[in-house]
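Cross-posted from the bioinformatics board.
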Amino acid sequence: MFLKKYISDIFSAVKSLLKGMKLTGYYFTHRKEIITQQYPDNKEDMKPPERFRGEVVLIHDEQNEHACTGCTACELACPNATIKIITKFDVTPEGKKKKALDTFVYHLELCTMCNLCIEACPTDAIKMAQTFEHSVYDRSQLTKKLNKPGSKIREGVE
Amino acid sequence: MFSIENITHSIDAWLNSTFSPGLALLLESLLVGLCVIGLFTVLGLVLVLMERKVSAYMQIRMGPNRVGPGGVLQTVADTLKLAMKEGLTPDGADKFLFNLAPYLVIVVAMMILAPIAFAKGVQLWDLNIGVLYVSAVSSLSVIGILMAGWASNNKYSLLGAMRSGAQIVSYELSAGISIISIVVLTGSLRVSDIIASQQDGWWLFKGHIPAVLSFVIFIIAVTAETNRAPFDLAEAESELTAGFHTEYSGMKFALFFLAEYVNIFIVCAIAATLFLGGWMPLHIGHWSGFNHVMDYIPSSLWFMGKTFFLIFVIMWFRWTFPRLRIDQLLRLEWKYLLPISMFNLLLTALIAVKGWYF
């Protein structure tokens, strides 16, 4: 009885080992499966996946309008104060004062790409771009203003 | 036909005709020593690169491919880096033992090369107890490891060395019994006799079931003996920092590293000699036509091919299986490998006596 279990243990062990070896053997012989991209050589046709988190950008459409209302939800969500929203007060056609975005200050040198600001935004105004070549020689170039000059909020966004 | 035997014979004849026999022997020994050191260097370079490329392809990525065409100069770069590192001796370490340990391990690896036949007629020392010599000398490497662990003055090194020592000593039993089963079939411990007996087929095929079982047990046992994954708990980077060679840096670490890869080559060479025929081409019984065709491939190529195939298999093991814990490792040996190998030895003795082999 003990012997039967002993031998069946050995056979099942060998079977599982061979199954594992079959998989790595398959990977070894099938070079097409390689997912490494040879980076500096393939710059023209390389495209990082959509989910890649590069840097935060404010989405602008063709009329140079964005969807940021200046609610500062992203600034509050950011764990290390990378975003600073500076707001101003616009006067609407009816004469009422409405909060609007003046400057969206973004410190790329502090950003951890954690995606919390994107999740916090109620109007989907910001997204993560797929750029990753951020090295510069001058640190002040890493403090960015994300809203383009002359842009304003799109009609219909709350 | 190209053969290393011709080169060695011509050098031997020239030396003996130019100098006195004693001086010729001395010069030959020096030449052989240089060749062994050269072989070690080349092996180290080739095997480290092979390991990195094989592991990469098995992990769906490419290995080193920037340094030199296809990455072949990567190991040269690594060696230069290791040579330029500071070889630090820890403060409370036992200086003599600490410095001696790597050299002991390398010297043992060199000594085991003596009875291995690399090609027809190319063998350093064909002694009548060749196989026993190999088994005995390989046990000396345990001393080097224990010395390294103790002399490092580091709890983790000592623990790693103790575990490594226990592991090596245990697995030598199974490896030894597997070797004995081939010796029983051959009837001789002399390496050239064992190879000559495989003239009509390799023992792996001639000895059917017991030989296959011995082969499998031997491969598992030598993977454990050389501290190679999945049995590399003693030197796994995440388990015990680096085990017995934690405190080593620079050239001394390079020697340990080199000794590990050369040990893999040596045990695969032993396995190729005993089970796969050494330099003997693949012969099937008395099919003289087929055998004659097989003889055209040089014997050194046969030997290297077999050895590197076994090295590839051992690397395949490393990158497929998860690591075993020390208690699982020892349990595998004492409860599974040793009883099976002892039973297998009885089986081999039975078929050898009755003549039930090809």
